[in-house]
Design a protein that fits this description.
The structure is a homodimer of 592-residue chains.
Chain A: E1 17-29, E2 34-40, E3 43-49, H1 59-65, E4 72-81, E5 94-105, H2 120-125, H3 127-130, H4 134-156, E6 160-161, E7 179-181, E8 189-191, H5 197-205, E9 210-218, E10 230-239, H6 243-262, E11 271-274, H7 275-282, E12 295-297, H8 299-302, H9 308-314, E13 319-326, H10 334-346, E14 353-357, E15 367-368, H11 377-387, E16 394-401, H12 402-419, E17 429-433, E18 438-441, E19 446-449, H13 462-467, E20 476-481, E21 484-491, H14 496-505, H15 510-523, E22 531-537, H16 538-546, H17 576-581, E23 584-586
Parallel strand pairs in A: 3-5, 6-9, 11-17
Antiparallel strand pairs in A: 1-2, 1-4, 2-3, 4-5, 7-8, 9-10, 10-22, 12-13, 13-16, 14-15, 14-16, 17-20, 18-19, 20-21, 21-22
Helix pairs in contact in A: 4-6, 4-16, 10-12, 14-15
Chain lengths: 592, 592
């Protein structure tokens, strides 16, 4: 239907006749001359309709004059040099003098135009118009190129792309499953996979050695801005490997794809940090290292002070008192400080103590703080020294359990870094390693797995693990980029007895383990090789590469935070007969 | 953990120390010497354990003697030239003299061994052992290479790989949907996509120009041997194209992947055949052209004969009387002929008339047939001549409606071709085109779409289509290979008014159309470009390439014909509380 793409018409074609297809981006009728910007996925070219063309046809101008926004056109014409060069577009040195303008499909008046961004609900409802916007085309293309680059790299290295099922077994562990009633088995259900975790482990036991899949995963969780019901991960697994085999391999992969897609050189090697160090310095297991701010633990200094919140937590076995220096923060207004307190409260803070260093040379006199009166001169001086605070800085304090203090002070660190313009440009990748094996869940009064129940502990002996469960370290690892956990993985348990021991520690009894994970326990008995792997969040990496905060910008048809597709109207009611076929009924709402 | 792969140890490594990981495929204790065949995904290499190694360590022989089938081992040793060359394996000129044998994971006694095929149920239950079998590894690899070759070809040509949702809107059209209750929307459901059809059309309207996806699709249909609940298709769509643009492009793609994966040159160009011709000559819209047998229509000859079944259908407006010559069929026993009759009956035959040509020179005297007495000499002679039957052949006759006669005689043709050894080796691809737009559904008393309701008719005018719906031809096309429809596609409707007209002809009222497909009808109003595409069945193409009848052999974790995963036990019951969370209950079985 066409000879060239609009966006690729160039000076080499001057004098040639071309046929182009595209949308009318802009049409301008300048009395006796008509200009149309014709747009396809490659870009825009200017079409000119003159009173009569070279062969004396006058119809072209009339056809051009009738063109409206987003009409779908086929245009034949002759390429010529443009007089007024438009440096903003790739085709700006040429234009096409139309000899024929064919209306392929008329567009009705638009809810919004390709150059506008009318708000997300409208964009999602008319996603086909939204995606025509060059900005969206670019972001989607970044994702496409990311996935291509990943596949190319993996294929060249012998990783085998193997599909695993979407209709799988319900295994209530971790997030909530999506359920699918089974028509042929009344009262039974399939579940959509939260990840292909067990299948990829089974593939290693089945002799596939190096596996990958760009896999769709499903979690029926409350949606946050950066979550979708369904998401895409690059899922990888390796047989006969150690942590470093996996890490070194995928670190190189990530470097290559950033080079190919973004033209960026990431650090080689990536920085490495234990979980303990990341929590200590940044209050986060996914620290954004573009932000230079670091915590200072001050429990030692305030153990004996007269501020009860400090002394309580400084002397508590699981407590933390941490200070964070905010360079230039002495300028904060009372309102700003209150806002930071409110922000910290969202992450669990009961209060946020603060101190302004108005003149570092003046000791107590130079410090403005509601808590100064509870601290003696030596303590004040020690804090100022330890945090490195200078004249004009502020210091914020968090005191709570180790975890809570780390959480809210970590959140505060991120906000302060942005507000104070301290976050550097660029890319800060790192590995976080040596995670705890278990976290104690105070509500459920049992251990929960920090990664997942298939992660191997650093110790190889079940008795050792049982004896030291509280402090056991796992063989899990996360790849972190600019404060985002973009990949997470581990070496897996490959012996049946160790897997049973871990299930046991997690409060999953032998019977329950057999019912849910019997096939895994069986498979581990038949010579399962040592194996490990990792999974990367494609949506998040694509969003980072595309420079957008929202993963919805790199998903063609995303759902809203209320789990709806505004374009198609999913989810929707279905007829009773259809429910009966799969042996279910809608429960009375009042029974909920 | 290893320096080389087992299957790749070769003479270049002689004298070198290697470390290998793998499974003990066979272990033979020859009194004072032990041989282990160590297997990984690349193949097998022979390990030798001698009474003491070069450094005088005696432990190796003891370790080797303790090895059992499928134990997972790490072996270090020195490569040496093998005395008794084993030409059957790639590594057959070398062996590895072990200096260390490390048991990584002991295997319990196996339900079956990697060299056995113990029946499909056991294989599927222990899929991890089944997939270790070299035969399965090869078949899975064929699939992996197919998908790789397709992606490479598509990526090089600028096709954009875009993911579409798995949680979509229920649109009861075509096959039965899988439903997923929506937790956040009580009483509402998502559906799993039967194909990304509407999303890919929307992507064309969204300006993506050339799309592909290796897409998972779901149909809750009765499972036949060659169907799965979920299956994989290569889904493609093109903007601004005609049928030939699509066909020529993908035909070249299929030729390239067969060349790359199988080393086979497919015909260039593919044969082309209309639906009408395929039905006339082969009684099938997916004829296997490796089978040379063709139909002969004989209604003209038997219109006035005395065999009522023939005359009835020969004079019926929608009837067909068709003959099929079976070369050498005069040898069939009465039992064989009865069996063919039973086979035809499965496809709708009420009876199967037959005729043996025992001596073609003798006219009526040379023919043995229960129906000969109803046919005069001229008719007999005309039939023999038209079918080209010679001495020793048989002729089978089908008389019924055009569709039924075609169906059962087409099925008979396939069976006869196999039984008589007439099916040639090799690959017989073709395009089938010019399908009817609609089929009349006698039960529902309405038209149904032969492809799907979004397929464009050959006529561009709604009034014309309405007036001639019964004989309307669509712009659909199928790619057929060796009797399998491996791909199907069409040019789509790109105008809203035509789409509404087709919905109307299919008995989908304006209100229903708006409720189910409103977003498509809307999208068509905003300058939708002409577009079309195709989808290929990856599972089937992989099975053909792998030389297996069953697509389950090229799916890592398939379900049985009763829709179960024998390994994981899906589907399964789930606790009431989990159902309550998604606002459903299991219906009483008695109420079904």
């Amino acid at each position: 239907m066409r000879t060239h793409y609009c966006g690729l018409v160039d000076e080499a074609l001057i004098g040639r006749t071309v046929t182009l297809c595209g949308w009318a981006d802009v049409a301008r009728d300048l009395g006796g001359l008509c200009f149309i910007d014709l747009r396809d996925h490659e870009g825009i070219v200017q079409i000119v309709a003159e009173p009569s063309d070279a062969e004396g046809n006058a119809g072209v101008l009339a056809a051009a004059a009738a063109v409206g926004y987003e009409d779908c056109l086929r245009v034949t014409g002759v390429v010529r040099k443009r007089e007024a060069i438009n440096a903003k577009i790739r085709t700006g040195r040429v234009e096409v003098v139309a000899t024929r303008i064919e209306l392929l499909n008329k567009a009705e008046p638009l809810p919004f135009h390709a150059h506008e961004n009318p708000g997300e609900d409208i964009r999602l409802k008319y996603r086909y118009l939204d995606l025509r916007r060059p900005e969206m085309q670019q972001m989607m293309r970044t994702r496409i190129r990311l996935v291509q680059a990943l596949r190319r790299w993996l294929d060249e290295r012998g990783f085998q792309d193997i599909e695993t099922p979407i209709l799988t077994k319900a295994t209530p562990e971790g997030a909530r499953d999506f359920l699918v009633p089974a028509r042929m088995h009344p009262g039974e259900f399939y579940a959509l996979p939260q990840s292909p975790q067990l299948f990829k482990q089974i593939l290693m036991m089945a002799g596939f050695d190096r596996y990958y899949q760009i896999a769709r995963c499903f979690r029926d969780e409350a949606l946050r801005a950066d979550r979708q019901l369904e998401f895409t991960q690059l899922d990888m697994e390796f047989a006969w490997v150690s942590e470093r085999d996996v890490q070194d391999t995928v670190e190189e992969m990530i470097r290559v794809v950033f080079r190919e897609v973004k033209g960026v050189e990431l650090a080689d090697p990536f920085l490495r940090m234990t979980y303990a160090e990341a929590m200590r310095r940044y209050g986060s297991d996914k620290p954004d290292l573009r932000n230079p701010m670091e915590f200072t633990d001050v429990a030692e200094f305030v153990k004996g002070c007269e501020f009860k919140v400090f002394t309580d937590w400084a002397n508590h076995a699981d407590g933390r008192v941490v200070a964070l220096r905010a360079p230039g923060g002495a300028q904060f207004s009372r309102k700003q400080i209150d806002d930071y307190g409110a922000h910290a409260a969202k992450y669990g803070a009961k209060g946020l103590a603060w101190m302004k260093v108005e003149d570092a040379a003046k000791g107590r006199e130079g410090i403005h703080s509601p808590i100064a009166k509870f601290l003696d001169d030596a303590t004040l001086a020690a804090i100022v020294k330890a945090t490195g605070a200078r004249t004009g800085d502020a210091i914020f304090f968090g005191a709570a359990t180790y975890k809570t203090a780390s959480d809210f002070m970590g959140a505060l660190r991120l906000k302060l870094g942005k507000d104070l313009g301290l976050v550097a440009e660029g890319w800060a990748p790192l590995w976080v390693t040596d995670f705890p094996m278990f976290e104690w869940d105070d509500e459920e009064k049992r251990y929960v797995a920090l990664h997942h129940p298939f992660t191997a502990p650093a110790v190889d002996d079940e008795a050792d693990l049982r004896a030291n469960a509280k402090i056991a370290v796992s063989r899990g690892y996360d790849m972190v980029l600019n404060g985002n956990e973009i990949g997470g993985g581990s070496i897996r348990i490959h012996r049946s007895s160790m897997q049973s021991a871990v299930f046991d520690l997690l409060g999953i009894g032998a019977e329950e383990a057999q019912a849910k994970f019997g096939f895994l326990l069986d498979a581990l008995k038949y010579g399962a090789p040592p194996h490990g792997g990792i999974a990367f969040g494609i949506d998040r990496i694509a969003a980072l590469m595309a420079g957008t905060e929202s993963i919805r910008d790199v998903i063609a048809f995303p759902k809203t935070t209320s789990a709806q597709c505004l374009m198609t109207g999913a989810p929707s009611p279905v007829p009773e007969a259809q429910l009966a076929e799969v042996h279910i009924r809608v429960a009375e709402r009042k029974a909920e």
